[in-house]
Amino acid sequence: AAKKEGRRRARTFDPAMLLVLEQRELLRRSLRVALQHKEFFLEYQPLVDRCRTVTGFEALLRWRHPRLGVIPPIAFIPMAEADGLMSEIGQWVLEEACRAALNWPDHYTVAVNLSPAEFLTVGFTDRVSQTLDLVGFPAERLELEITETVLLERTTNNLDTLNTLNVLGIQISLDDFGTEYSSLSYLKNFPFDNIKIDKYFINDLLDDEKSQTIVRSIISLSHGLDMRVTAEGVETAEQASWLLAEGCDRLQGYFLSPPLHVDRLGSFIRHGKKARMGAAAGTTRAQ
Ligand code: C2E
Ligand code: MG
Ligand code: MG
Ligand code: MG
């Protein structure tokens, strides 16, 4: 009963709420200086092709907060966007990821996620090509991932931006396909090289016929439009086999590897991939 009463009171005045707001404000302030303090770092998650060969890595941003520990992107990117910090952070991500990729086998690609704020920044494409020049990284090995929310605003400029990136030789991926607006007109009007099927459809793939039908349709739609398809969030060997049998071009997910700290990439690359896929299928990992 005391608990119930506490909850009822909480609705009118709750000191804990103030605390939450204060903490948010603190977080926001520490986000402002996180770049200077070098608190951001990237993890890299591998992708494999139809032959189960590693083709490259996706860079995923993390924030090592001095007191709170490692904070995942979903917990701070919206705040960074709202505060106008995401363009600068994104620039750091791009440069850092390209530099890291210089150490990989020279056919590996690196995928970098873009937030709408970055993509819509004036001069964004110039900055991308300047960064490639600065780092000495070939445009053909860079993949930029955007979500459909990016395309909702300022359509003609969006198209210009995507076309410019395309002319530079950069690969463009449509991330999280199927979860947001998924307007088919995007597929008709924008020059994507690759569609990433959201993990929402991969999760229950083997138990849900609707997910299977949707995934099959996305694969055939993409191929019909000359785009490759990547499935993200593949967690089991069974899902991987199903997806490859249906013609999916690339796979990414815990079945292969979680995102890795940069220090672990060297040994991951050397180890060879097929053994690892076997390990995910249920044999014991030799290590
Ligand atoms: P995303 O680009 O769709 O990345 C995939 C997310 O799924 C990553 O979460 C990854 O760790 C997670 N994941 C990978 N494999 C599996 C799996 O098998 N199962 C499950 N359940 N999850 C898996 P993460 O790293 O927390 O990133 C979340 C989102 O944050 C990303 O989604 C992306 O939209 C955004 N993000 C990450 N890094 C950046 C960045 O540098 N810039 C921008 N603008 N956004 C970023
Ligand atoms: Mg992504
Ligand atoms: Mg995604
Ligand atoms: Mg996502």
Map the helices and strands.
Layout: H1 2-12, H2 15-34, E1 40-48, E2 54-65, E3 69-71, H3 77-82, H4 86-101, E4 109-113, H5 116-119, H6 124-135, E5 142-146, H7 148-152, H8 155-168, E6 171-177, H9 184-189, E7 194-197, H10 199-203, H11 209-224, E8 228-231, H12 237-245, E9 250-251, E10 260-261, H13 265-271, H14 274-280
Parallel strand pairs: 2-4, 4-5, 5-6, 6-7, 7-8, 8-9
Antiparallel strand pairs: 1-2, 1-10, 2-3
One magnesium ion binds at residues 175-176, 196, 198, 232.
Domain EAL: 24-273
Protein name: Kinase
Categorize the overall geometry: globular
Question: What is the makeup of the main sheet?
Answer: 10 strands, mixed
Strand content bin: 15-25%
Bound molecules: ligand C2E, magnesium ion
Average of per-residue pLDDT values? 89
Order of helices and strands: HHEEEHHEHHEHHEHEHHEHEEHH
Number of strands: 10
- Percent range of helical residues: 40-55%
Label the structural class. alpha/beta
**What integer value in Å does the Rg equal?**
21 Å
Helix run count: 14
Our measurement of the CA-to-CA distance between the termini, rounded to an integer number of angstroms, reads 53 Å
Low-confidence stretches: 278-287
